[in-house]
Amino acid sequence: MTGPQFDLTVVVPVAERPIALDQLYHEFSRPLREAGYSFEFLFVAHPWARKLTAVLATLRAAGEPVRLIEVAQGGETTLLKVAAANVRSRILVTLPAYLQTEPTVLPDLVTQVREGADLAVAWRAQRRDSIVNRLQNRILHLFVGRLGGGRLHDVACGVRAMRTEVVSEIPLYGDFARFLPLLALREGQTVEEVPTAVHRKAMQGRVYGPGIYLRRLIDVLGLFFLIKFTDKPLRFFGLVGASIALTGLFILLVVLIQRLTGTPLADRPILLLGVLLLTLGMQSIALGLIGEMIVHLSAPQQQRYRLRRTNSPARPDAA
Amino acid sequence: MSLRPTLSVVVPLYNEEESVPGLVDAVRSALAGDRTWELVLVDDGSRDGTAAAAQRISAVDPRVRLIRLARNYGQTQAMQAGFDAVQGDIVVSMDGDLQNDPADIPMLVSTLEQGYDLVAGYRERRQDKVITRKIPSWVANRLIRAITTVPIRDNGCSLKAYRREMLDRMHLYSDMHRFLPALAAATAGARITEVAVRHHARRFGQSKYGLSRILKILADLLTITMISWFRERPIALFGLGAAGAFGLGMLFFGFSMLGVIDPRPRVAHAYVLPAAGILWLVLAWYLVMIGLIGEVALRTAREREDVLPIAVEQPL
Does domain B7-230 bear CATH number 1.25.40.10? Predict the structure, then answer.
């Protein structure tokens, strides 16, 4: 590659509930063009989305700067990583394939990154989508808000701008691309929010099946564990295990005292519960210890801190 | 100066703006006329002017270097970042709050040169609050010493000297700086001793510790115990646990056998006690499996990297 060829690349993972891609392209390229940036739109899609991506050939034929990369495997995180590896600019903008925010926010996000932020994320401060959507977002932030030190208002917003390298500097896997700003904060990157509004056409409520909510819940739990305990699994498993084991021990003690005062030990089915809890607690602690062993053994391979970029702005970061 | 310094002093700093100039002056006068040295200041994502203060000094004195972490990672990571950056063959670490006295550095270094890999400072007359600092620390040190058998009276004192060969074999993570001597002994085979050092009352800023750490320290203590004793044979630890669980299970089965000779057989002898016995056997089985996973993890790690502990040929 011979240096950056554009100011920025807009990466569109064609994954969830996409709209017509030519409409998306026209909506979101306009403010960038007006701001005077040279850019390219990079669509990443699964091969089974060809019905949607067919229109890109037409755009291309009309001379629009669009590219399409197909990946036959992986979720949104994989799509993002594949895209980042194929970006030919210093700045990368991610855009969900539907109308999430007002298009006018894009130049502002790019400005933040040009001024030194590692990542700038749109914050849908002015919501005009359905009450269902708002409620979903509220509940999500109830859980994940604290993980970012309470600094981020709209973690789940997919409209973001960043230095292209940020994608490779953050350990991204599974479904964690969704929480990119939180992970970036954890890696000591500077994250800025740009307030904007929900897209004026995004009025209809989106309700999903219970499966989606279950997956989100697992995502959030996974994220919580990842951020709080990956370096110290025993603090989590040990606390859980010790509480369970102590409950079991307490039950056994009560049964034992009653045995000494006359009630035969073997006639107490609750004895079983006591033993069950005790063994369960010990299992948790053993799992935590194995986790610690793995962390300890991998310590030589892992650098667990990041140095500040020398040209980053002298702005103290949140932990 | 292109000369590589022989002594590196590492100081993690978090919101120590006021302490920095005094710290640098104290290090300068302590090491004046001595060997070539460098002072590595590690700014652990401070929110005050710590980095700027350090930057001002390092701009005029090339012996003072500043390393800035991207965010506040905590003392362990800050120390490791400093260790990763040092150039000297002898490394000294200390706190940035002026409670340690840099005047002790030459003494630590000369002790190190008598044939040790780690010399830990021991705060003889500690100037801290009794209830919140000294008593918990006394209990913790007793526990750590008893469990790890590394004879260090004061694990909490940051003023320590190390050989670089030893640091290259040891990696700090999580909050392991508290157990640094035990970790050094377990992973690098460090030869360790301790010497008394001075300790001053805090002049600036806030102490960054509290009482709330006890649960965390207990978990870490369990971890360091495992690492100290079973680092190269995880199956032994879990096998030991499995044997205990198996024994308990057998005990319950034994009691249930009493039903056979009991003239008035009880339902419990046939159900409750054997069931409890089975639970223990299940735990034993599970612990063996976990131990095997530990062996897999160990083998994988050793395939990637196999570093031998420090070995010294002795004159005969």
Answer: no
